[in-house]
Design brief:
The chain folds into two domains: 116 residues, Aminotransferase class 4, branched-chain amino acid transferase, N-terminal domain (D-amino Acid Aminotransferase, Chain A, domain 1); 154 residues, D-amino Acid Aminotransferase, Chain A, domain 2, CATH 3.20.10. The chain is built from seven helices and 15 strands. The relative contact order is 0.14. The chain binds pyridoxal-5'-phosphate.
């Protein structure tokens, strides 16, 4: 189990950080989660581009050029002999230094990336999951994949306490996204989702959804829908690198369209599998 760091590969048991680490003390850093199928990255360009956008947005100096980052990420899979489905978690913080809000001088960023096993959530994807709705109390810059995830963590915990898979977040009734995924409503053959503004994460899988809808001549409407609209939705689903295309069949205890998974969601699941090069659906 080797972890990639800014300087070298380190065995996971040998990786330690000082307690004055800015990721730990301020959440002063950014991260990515990249899906791996059959030992190969999926949507790697989208993730690397987003990582560097996040770094720019928070004035964080990346330890690697983009080109080096690709090489290092490949080396990480090789070093760990990954051939199956997995995910790579990577974070970069502003480094370790005596605690002070302002950026420390001459301190190098800390980076680590490691591989975790991850199997596809076949039953959930087949049957659909339930969700709750919660107010979105996060900051205005959710397009940055920052380490500050406390509102997301609390929302997900509340979902979990109610036996639900996700929390659908809304600002004054307007649905933004979920605690760790993007969310979409299907009505009258059209797919609605919040526009890729600064207040949501621009999901890499969301980008593919837009393309798949275009391929299939399904209107992809980037306009926010409201929590009340969910009760009249024909279909509801969420996407993320770990959840893929996940149908939502119940919200706040009420079934969405009879609790059945809809045909557009099924079509998009199928397109995802093809795009990701997943051979067979069980
Ligand atoms: N929105 C939030 C808040 C997330 O944390 C995530 C990913 O984990 C997503 C959306 C989906 O992003 P992606 O499709 O790039 O995995």
């Amino acid at each position: 189990d080797y972890v990639l760091t800014e300087s070298d590969f380190v065995h996971k048991d040998d990786l330690h950080y000082p307690f004055e680490e800015r990721g730990l003390q301020f959440g002063d850093g950014i991260y990515e989660v990249i899906r791996v199928y059959n030992g190969k990255y999926y949507l790697i360009d989208e993730h690397v581009e987003r990582l560097y956008r996040s770094a720019d947005a928070v004035k964080l100096k990346m330890p690697f050029s983009k080109e080096e980052m690709y090489q290092q990420l490949d080396a990480l899979l090789q070093k760990n002999e990954i051939q199956n489905d997995a995910k790579v978690y990577m974070q970069i913080t502003r480094g370790s230094a005596p605690r002070d809000h302002a950026f420390p001088l001459n301190v190098k960023s800390n980076l680590y990336a490691y591989v975790q096993d991850l199997s596809r959530k076949m039953d959930f994807m087949a049957e659909g999951v339930s969700a709750i709705t919660r107010p979105d109390v996060r900051w205005d810059w959710c397009y940055i994949k920052s380490l500050n995830l406390l509102p997301n963590v609390i929302a997900k915990q509340e979902a979990s306490e109610q036996g639900c898979f996700e929390a659908i977040l809304h600002k004054d009734g307007e649905v933004t996204e979920c605690s760790s995924s993007n969310v979409y409503m299907v009505r009258d053959g059209k797919v609605y989702t919040h526009p890729a503004k600064e207040n949501i994460l621009h999901g890499c899988v969301r980008t593919r959804m837009k393309q798949f809808c275009e391929d299939e001549s399904i209107p992809f409407v980037e306009e926010p829908f409201r929590v009340e609209d969910i009760q009249d939705a024909d279909e509801l689903f969420l996407t993320s690198s770990t959840a893929e295309v996940m149908p939502i069949v119940q919200v706040d205890g009420k079934a969405v369209e009879g609790g059945q998974v809809g045909s557009i969601t099924r079509k998009l699941q199928h397109k995802y599998e093809q795009d990701a090069g997943i051979k067979e659906s069980q």
